[in-house]
Amino acid sequence: MFSHIKNGSFGRASEYASAEDFCRVFNQDMDVLYWLALTLTGDETKAEQCFVSGLAECIEGNSVFKDWARSWSKRVVIKNAIRIILPRPGSTPTPLSDTQPASQAEAAMTAVKAMRPFDRFVFVMSVLEGYTDRDSAILLGCSPTDLVKARFRAVQEIARAIEVSAGLPEVPGHELQQIGVLNEARIA
Description:
Blueprint: H1 3-7, H2 9-13, H3 19-28, H4 30-41, H5 44-59, H6 69-85, H7 104-114, H8 117-128, H9 133-140, H10 144-164, H11 175-179
Helix pairs in contact: 4-5, 4-6, 4-8, 5-6, 7-10, 8-10, 9-10
């Protein structure tokens, strides 16, 4: 009855990712995965711990389709960062450093680093990584209302940082472009 599925697209999708597939993903995407861990944790040591434990968790065996290995690797890094930081609504912001940013991109990234951990996680997950509100709320263990409020605060903080740094040069292709100068449609 379903014999045609074996040779069709379902046959390719049913191949599971191996330890070698995950090693390849972590090697090829090392910069992206480490940046994600560092941005979420705000700490180099915790980011390294997050990255290494993410790789170990993926290698130990996840029944994930081969085509999903890359997105699963990001999800594991995010889940490890959540486990390490335990971001909750109402947490206090990180103190800002006294160094002045050299560009609008640096100002935006400084604003992200200075956010309350919960707001930073919400911003990175829902705006930068494109997770749905439902997925983000489930991973963070919060209500959708808390999530929307945190994203709004995060976008306001970055907009304020960009406004204050208006006299600084823009750096094309830098972090500010990754932030997408804040896709305001995602706020609502």
